Amino acid sequence: MWWGTLGTVRPFPNFGPEEDAREIYTALEKKGADVNTLVRILTNRNNVQRQCIADAFETIAKKELKLALKKALSGALEDLLLALLMTPSQFDAHRLRQSMEGLGTDEEGLLEVLCTRTPKQLSDITVAYNQEFGRNLEKDLISETSKDFTKLVLAILKKEELNIKGVIDYQLIDQDVKALLGGVNVKKTDPTPWIQILTSRSPGHLSRVFTKLEGLKGEPVERTVQNNFSGDLRLGLRILVQTIQSTPMYLAQRLQNNMKKIAIVRGILVARSEEDMLCVRREYRRLTNTSLYSTIQNEFKGEMQQALLALCRSEDL
């Protein structure tokens, strides 16, 4: 972490977009494509630099880089390199759409994106979703979810930026704890205060609320959710609680449970590579007593392994 960022992908020094674009053009023109060159460049430039490369490539080749990659590649590696060419909001918009397409909705896929993004990021994702698909994200979420789970995902989507660092309102903490207890200390649980409070308070405030609630209930907040709610709502509240407590820990657990699912591994590594992948790696090590880097080496082969390792960046001893 000494270089001042919690991400593993940083701006490439002495960056030259035209030079990179020409090298990629040459790699794509070769018979069979020089995949090593494509992976080396695209995983070693940050997102802003990759956008510059795409613009320079279009000027040089008179065609879009993403179309050239689609023509030259296939499968999981194609998906990963195309993901790297999207802006963060475009990538998240595509992940949300994929979670809602086909038979059945991937609720945890939706929740991973919604619960781990800031209000500003969610606003950008909403705009990108409309631009990419010509669809309204809120309407799609309503059509793909139901009842209280719909209320929860919409509340997460619409949460506002809170900036009350250093301000501790002990009276509000007590009020929130009382409201949360009221929602579960009845014959028919009421999720309304849980949805309202968990999506309208700062993480620092909620941390104090959770500590007090756990003291009164004698169990972790996650257990309280597990014991009092059911179905998709229980899943949603559980993941929301986990991400409020520690997004890196939640993502490390998701990786641990889904290492065989390339879409999930790719999604987390691409999305977090410039944000907090060092923290995710640390929590993964604590959780599994194995480094994420070594796990990727064991689970993947060839060019896909090379690309994922480049995003993970290094071993944790």
UniProtKB/TrEMBL annotation:
Identify the domain of life: Eukaryota
What the entry lists under Pfam families is as follows:
Annexin
Instruction: Supply the PROSITE patterns for this chain.
Output: ANNEXIN_1 (PS00223), ANNEXIN_2 (PS51897)
Q: What keyword terms does UniProt attach to this protein?
A: Annexin, Calcium, Calcium/phospholipid-binding, Repeat
Gene Ontology CC annotations of this record: cytoplasm; nucleus; plasma membrane; vesicle membrane
List, alphabetically, the SMART domains matched: ANX
Q: Record's InterPro entries?
A: Annexin, Annexin_repeat, Annexin_repeat_CS, Annexin_sf
User: Any idea which GO molecular function terms this record carries?
Assistant: calcium ion binding; calcium-dependent phospholipid binding; phosphatidylserine binding
Task: Please give the family membership noted in the entry.
Answer: Belongs to the annexin family.
Domain description: A pair of annexin repeats may form one binding site for calcium and phospholipid.
Looking up PANTHER family in the UniProt record yields: ANNEXIN (PTHR10502:SF8)
Protein name per Swiss-Prot or TrEMBL: Annexin
